[in-house]
């Protein structure tokens, strides 16, 4: 039995690392699609999220219907969760209109701070000194990102306001903190398929309503033409043959080739949707197999992908302060995550001891209900940080 357990553990770690890198790659892919659309002048963050929730609905809702089971959690809680999640995605995607891909991806780590505050007051979770030190180190690193953006405005587009984009990301992380804690609670009380299916369904409804109210004019104002792609795509990563073909499209107006480049623009929306589908699908597996420690460290890899995208594709220089900020945030996350595991073990031991101490021979019913309450409280306190 010990040999089997060791063999499973030996395979478990590489699998978790692989899934964690898939999550990081999906985050980086979604960031690239959003930033590229923003560079092309497409201002439609709600529409991007709409396609992502549509994919979740088409895949997971039929599974729920096939089960023929009633939702274990009331629908209005899923509606509230979807509303908060849609707003978080909107704010972060909107930030690409004003800030760089590297700043947006790294500032996502603000979620750590908001989850600490939320779980401290709402769930009664207590953190150690080292966890506070790790979170404080993250905040110091993120402050360096803000300083970097304040000192180096976007030279290629003077109309951009990096600090406004940074503020939108921080506001979006507040929404993500609420949605992440709620999602973790739902997963522990419920199953993963119902959570993702209902999140996709209600997210689809919320984003569709908000598109109809707020984003129709932005979609109508988008110039769906190959001239949008000329400024960014050809000099950066298209080969010379495609670039020459592109310029012939602009000069001759060939209808077939125009359609091809229109499809390219639409494919960015599809790429964003597929990336989020991967993220929402794989994340519960990583959290269940390894917890939030390895999950947070895996997401840090997406920031490295963002640096590579900005240097190799956009050919933009990065302020040296960003590299210092990245190192500081990485140290802070490592300190926080390592102490998070020991803190969680301590809370679990304390909860079990309290439950055993409260057992009375004369009150079986009250004892069982007390144990259930302790277990639910433990589940609530294990909210992950995304």
UniProtKB/TrEMBL annotation:
UniProt KW Membrane keyword: yes
Top-level taxon in the UniProt lineage: Eukaryota
Record's keyword terms, sorted: Membrane, Transmembrane, Transmembrane helix, Transport
Compositionally biased residues, Low complexity: 362-372
SUPFAM superfamilies: Multidrug resistance efflux transporter EmrE
GO molecular function terms listed in the Swiss-Prot or TrEMBL record: transmembrane transporter activity
A Pfam family per the record: SLC35F
InterPro entries, A to Z: EmrE-like, SLC35_F1/F2/F6, SLC35F_Transporter
Membrane topology summary: Multi-pass membrane protein
UniProt-annotated stretches for the region Disordered: 357-386
UniProt feature, compositional bias: Basic and acidic residues: 373-386
GO cellular component, one term: membrane
Protein family: Belongs to the SLC35F solute transporter family.
Lineage: Eukaryota, Viridiplantae, Streptophyta, Embryophyta, Tracheophyta
Identification of the protein by name: Predicted protein
Protein location: Membrane
Ranges that cross the membrane: 43-63, 75-92, 98-122, 129-148, 160-181, 193-214, 258-282, 294-314, 320-338
Chief localization: membrane
